Fold this protein.
Amino acid sequence: MAAVVIAIVAFRSENRRARFENARALHHDLTTGEVGAARTIIGNLHYGGLTPSDSRRVGPDELTAYFTVLWCFERIEAGRTALLRGALRTDGTNDEAVGYLDALIAWHVAEFACGFAVARSRLATTANADVSDGSSSAAFWRLLQAMQERGMVDPLYRAGSCPGPGCPCSCHSPSLP
Ligand SMILES: [Zn+2]
Ligand SMILES: [Zn+2]
């Protein structure tokens, strides 16, 4: 009996360790390597205030970067859904590993709620690239909605578009250089 109890405790702690490792790896994917580099490119589109004369600077690299970051969020959403499925409580609330992941990614999700919308419109106007990102952006919006339902991202952020005046994103702040 004691052996069974010890085995269960060991399994639980191993399982818990693996779940935290999964959450950490999902965040790592977003902040390092090619995704990190792509985020810098999208950050320039998002915060750069491009004028029409900058149009030569916007092209295939920016389009690739857009999808590199979007697909990373799609992987995170899938990984988060898998963590929720494996949570001890069926609704996933108060799950430590999901809470840890959410705390790590919330501000990134908020930033890109506006960032993807701004980048998409800049790609359309300066590179004449109509971004078709249906199912990948649907995964991102599910992630945004989940963060908003948990109160971790401002509800003013909108799925699929920047609401303009009233958007909480710092790119709209006149104090930016
Ligand atoms: Zn905005
Ligand atoms: Zn913004």
